[in-house]
Amino acid sequence: MKKKLASKCFIARSFFLLFVLFGFHANLTAQTFYYNGTGDLNNVASWGANANGTGTAPADFTTNNQVFIIQNGTSITHNSGVFAVAGTNSKIVMGNPTYASPATPSPAITITINAGSQITTAGNVNFEVSLPSSGNHKIIYKNTSAISFSTVMNDPNLELVFDGNTLTTTTNRTFGNVSIINNANITMAGASIVLNNLLVEEGSTLAGPLDASGNYIAIKTGGSVTINGTLRAGRQGSVTSPNVGGLYSTGIALPVVAASSQATLLFQSATTPPALTLGANSTVDYYRGFGATQTGVQGITPWAYANLILSNDATASNRSFSAAGNITVAKNFIVRLRSTASITQPSTSTNVRLLPTAKMMIDSANIFPTNGRLTLQSDLSGTASIGALASGASITGNVTVQQFISAGARSFRFLSHPFNSNQKLSQLVDNIDITGNAAGTIGQLGQTAVVGFTATSTNNPSAFLFNTSSANGNVTNDGGWTAINDTSTANWNVARGIRVLVRGTKSQAGTLNGTNNNPSALTLDMSGVINQGQVVTNLAIGGTGATEGFNLVGNPYPSPVNIGAVLNAATNIGNTIYLRNPITSSYITINPIPPSYIIPANAAFFVKANASTSLTFNESNKVNCTSCATVFKSAIPNNRFEMQFEKDGEVYDNLIVNFTNNPSISQNKNEAVKLMNSTLNVYAVSSNNKRLAATTSSLKTSKIRLGILLPKTADAQTFNLRITDFNLNFKGSLVLHDKLNNSFTPINETTVYQLQINPLNPESVGENRLEIIVKN
Hints:
Blueprint: H1 2-28, E1 31-35, E2 47-48, E3 66-70, E4 75-78, E5 81-85, E6 91-94, E7 110-113, E8 117-121, E9 126-129, E10 138-141, E11 159-163, E12 166-168, E13 177-181, E14 185-187, E15 192-200, E16 205-207, E17 216-227, E18 230-233, E19 248-250, E20 265-267, E21 276-278, E22 283-287, E23 297-300, E24 304-312, E25 319-323, E26 327-337, E27 341-343, E28 352-354, E29 359-362, E30 367-369, E31 374-376, E32 378-379, E33 382-383, E34 385-389, E35 394-396, E36 399-405, E37 411-415, E38 463-466, E39 481-483, E40 498-502, E41 522-528, E42 535-539, E43 550-554, E44 561-562, H2 563-568, E45 573-581, E46 586-590, E47 597-599, E48 604-609, E49 613-617, E50 630-631, E51 640-647, E52 650-660, E53 672-673, E54 681-685, E55 691-698, E56 703-709, E57 717-727, E58 733-738, E59 743-746, E60 752-757, E61 770-775
């Protein structure tokens, strides 16, 4: 009986062992399914046990030991939902691997993962990439979740395209090309990624590794990086090695050792500079990091940047930025830091240059110490500027400010300076010839030249201040012009202009004696501590005649300003401003003062003070400008037009005519005295025979008399009289009557009239040739 029982137990144990062994073996045998090339990947009907995707479909994607091979197509799109493989020992394989049946790799496949869809793996499930028979596999992300690639990835040339999506990835794999396109926003803060090539398209953003030194973007030998969009770069330094980091490092061994470098881009090639291209619209944002224990200095790689941003959202203290070499910025240089962050001043071997048309802005309460190494450059394309500074922001130390002056015009110019203290004329004499004598008189031979000025046969002055108390309205040489007769006195006041004759580069042959009237282009440069914050300048009253109360005001900032906003906020001033056109040696009359009128840096203008008053400039008055001076008008005032007198594309004079149909309104409201030009002058003649650059007449007036002056030494010339800013809303018409030709030309928004002027013919000039006839 005992033997039978033992035999039965042995048989039972044997069956149990066989069951366990066969069952375990069955679990080790993976079942393979193939995508059939149609339908979404998360649909079991899209899969089959045969190599072409036909045959038995999987029951689900969660059973253990299943392999899903994506093949049978070169362009596959996953449109919606989640393709999630979650079974133990299961995997997804992109392309037919060599160990699958049939044992032939498939051609290159492109998988597009559309918005709203995902491919995910869970637990110990892998996503592998096989080696294609030709070409490179590609994954196009339009979703917001990255695939978690497994350790086994046979294709190192896999291409990734981030297309218009926002995605964070922490991958630590080797890829081929990575492209970020169509305004995609990709974060690789925790990635340890190796690439052949990297492209960030314009409008797209890549945030690189920022904190741990073991994270990086490494570029293999022969690879390149092209940034046309935004790259958030800059690795935070450590306590023991504070000066490492920056945009790139070269000669990095792969695989990367965690502590070998902390730059954002690591190039295996030892070539310096590396194959890094920053496009014309690229932005490099140096982000200081956020680790609480990281207190080192962030190095800013010496480079030519299109746009450069220094930013820091961290709360930790001592987050400094430092440049170890020359930096140039072509467009925008923005400082945007927490108050606990700082910028180390440039060394004596470091220069920060803002190229022409560039603009510097400080958006936070931080100090930018220049150490005298910041230069605002200028050329024919424009002049670099410093935009509005945030409350608490400041720039310390000297700033070098340049001003380009084009060739071909030997004429007086109205200049201002942007510094917070009165300046000496010695700021200019290294760039241009300035003449003068100790007495400041004109036309007396044998006078001694001022030390620092260029000597001539007469030593007549060529630089002047405008003294309002001495103004007398003299049309030949107003008494307000006071010669500057030394270079050592700081008499060029803050927010004030001077008049300087510019006749080409310093010591240019023939420009002093008048034998060369084609001066070369030049660049002025001045250096000092710039005005920041609010600037208030008091206007002087006094003088007599037409220029009584006139003040030559200068732009006090190294930036274009909206002078219209400044003047409209003031009281007791006239309703006209006068700018100088150096090409034509004529005044540009602006009447009335518009809400917005932009003047460039280093420019000055005339405005009249009717009583004691001041002008207040604020940081908010700084603006952008591409072709100053530029008028931005919300609307042209009613019942007015402007006459411009043009030749060879330049405006030589202008006349503004305003009308009112309300006799109770003073006709003097929008009148402006005529400041006389050295060439053509066209003006309105008032009822009391005043010369006006802007006049206001009643619509009941039948005629407006005009005057014409052209120096008798000038040749007979033809100007185009062009009507601009035409806006009349009364029932009537206007006619230009030319008595010389007995012609009558309707005045409207399209009028262009050829005005032929012979200064030797008394009937061609004077105040009895032209008139405007008002017909109601």
